[in-house]
Write the structure tokens for this entry.
Amino acid sequence: MNNQRRTVLKSGSGAALLGMLAAAGIITPGMALADWNKAAFDAKSMADTLKALGAGQPADSKDVQVTGPDIAENGAVVPVGVASSLPNVTMVAILIEKNPNALAASFTLPADTEANVQTRVKMGQTSNIYALVKSDGKFFMATKEIKVTLGGCGG
Amino acid sequence: MGNPMKIRAANKDGVTEVKVLVSHEMETGQRKDSAGAIVPAWFITELVAKHGDKVVLTSEFGPSVSKNPYLAFKFKGGAKGDKITVSWKDNKGDSRTDEAAIN
């Protein structure tokens, strides 16, 4: 029992130390990022993000569905889902037009994984949400406006 | 490091639905603390889900994914008792792997 308590204490202080190091700038963020698409996540506008993802000008498609609330009371936790009936979907991305960086998340789907993902995102203000889907090598998009009562970015 | 993830996986009619709840701050780097200093960004950048040795989902997150990220997805195949492994890493180089069996 006592041993276990020691371990918990140790791991707790380890995490705190890591936080302190990072705050002091010893560990710089972005150090261990290998495959992460920095250009796409750093892009501010919708157009730049689409460019960084290699999507160009995606066509609007009825076969892509964005699900989410019409009004989100708390912008810090907005449930968003993307589904598509298009064939051979290999990539799904969620973009929020008016967030500081438009791209929220992107998913790579192997052949057996269905084009149906749900997650939760933060929204700074009322904005259009775009679902970007890559099917058979082409990009398609769908939009939904979500009204935010209380923003989830900034304090 | 970090706290364990909650992973639920259920197979129905040959399709396995996986739900993951990760415990992570997901700090955006935009917030300021009470002293006016910017709170440094701290968020999960990559999350990979595997069924056995086969990757079933690769995700890249930005800081605008909510605190304690939730993720749900479905894949064809999978049987009761099969192992689902989920790993993430964040922008500070921290990482964690957890696993669960399909119900």
